Amino acid sequence: MVLATTRWALERRVKASVSDDSVVPSGCPTHCLFVPSSLRSQVIKWGHCSRLACHPGVTRTIFLVGQRFWWPTMTSDIRAFVSSCPACASAKVPRRPPAGLLRPLPVPSRPWSHIAVDFITGLPNSRGFSVILTIVDRFSKLAHAVPLQKLPTAKELAEVMSRNVFRLHGLPANIVSDRGPQFVAEFWKEFCKLLGITLSLSSGFHPQTNGQVERYNQDLETTLRAMCAKSPGTWARQLPWAEYAHNSLVNNSGFSPFQAAYGYQPPLFPHQEEVASTSGPAAFVRRCQRTWRRFRASLLRNQERFTAVANRRRSAAPEYKVGDKVWLSSSDIPLKGGSRKLHPRFLGPFTITKVVNPVAVRLDLPSTLKVHPVFHVSKLKPVRESCLQTTDLEPPPPR
């Protein structure tokens, strides 16, 4: 009854605003009231935001409003109103492919010049170890898995990397990682700066940036799960063999990581040793260089194919610029209120303060949100504005 009374009051205002001698534009259905511009926002708000409507999409809002009201630009006005509705923007998930076409990292030209690092945590205790540091050479895909007692501090990480990577393969030009506390610590940044190593950190809540080591982590966990099914606490004993298997088996490039890095396949049986060691130093260098050229060409072909396939399920990101306002996905943001079931799907709006690259931007976040302000565009959606829409929405309090 309250809803009906609201509509009747709205009808009376519409009728009162149109005098008897007013000219109604042609095209107005006989059962509809022509709505002047001064009342269109109220009419759309009734047809979209009232409890009778409950924030439907554009088509349903047009249907509800069109049952009693009409004006020439009704369809476009309703579309603009609904697309700029803060309640809808914060509550609804877009029904379209994620924004941001794949931008793969450049393919290195030699082994161990560019590496990626990460941790595997949550493992059962095995010989005093509960964490694995994984390091992947982005060129050859050769990997090392180092068992650790716990997550290291930045200083401990520097020692582990020096002992297990730098002394074996030299200093890399670049290290890709997520934004774990070890990798954003000032000690780690200064340590790498002194060694001439640049750091590439992933954008907020977007592990795909470090996809190569994330994929290795998945494969390593699967291998250990299979090898330690009956005794999970023995994973530390099996870890060297899991690493060896990954590095010696041929992948979709046609090479094993070991062969891509060193120019020959590791001998598995004693009779292969003589074949593997007959060439002289010059021939060995030429073989390595030849292998690297072939392998890099294979990487580029695979990358091109993978990018084309991946982008079929993505959409081009809007061309954001500084000052634009966006909604931020709440999927990875800690919020107050217990269950996330009825939490808003997007927070904001927030203002873009810097365009880091075509698929990452920095946002002006309130101090209550304790997260890094750089986000991939797949976590954002642009704010739509309409002169008919004046409602503001406050984000829920963070935890």
Automatic annotation (TrEMBL):
BP GO terms, sorted: DNA integration; DNA recombination; proteolysis
Pfam families according to UniProt: Integrase_H2C2, rve, SH3_Tf2-1
Keyword vocabulary terms for this entry: Aspartyl protease, DNA integration, DNA recombination, DNA-binding, DNA-directed DNA polymerase, Hydrolase, Magnesium, Metal-binding, Nucleotidyltransferase, Protease, RNA-directed DNA polymerase, Transferase
One Gene Ontology molecular-function label: RNA-directed DNA polymerase activity
Organism domain of life: Eukaryota
Domain Integrase catalytic as annotated: residue spans: 107-274
InterPro entries, per database record: Integrase_cat-core, Integrase_H2C2, Retrovirus_Pol_polyprotein, RNaseH-like_sf, RNaseH_sf, SH3_Tf2-1
Designated name of the protein: Gypsy retrotransposon integrase-like protein 1
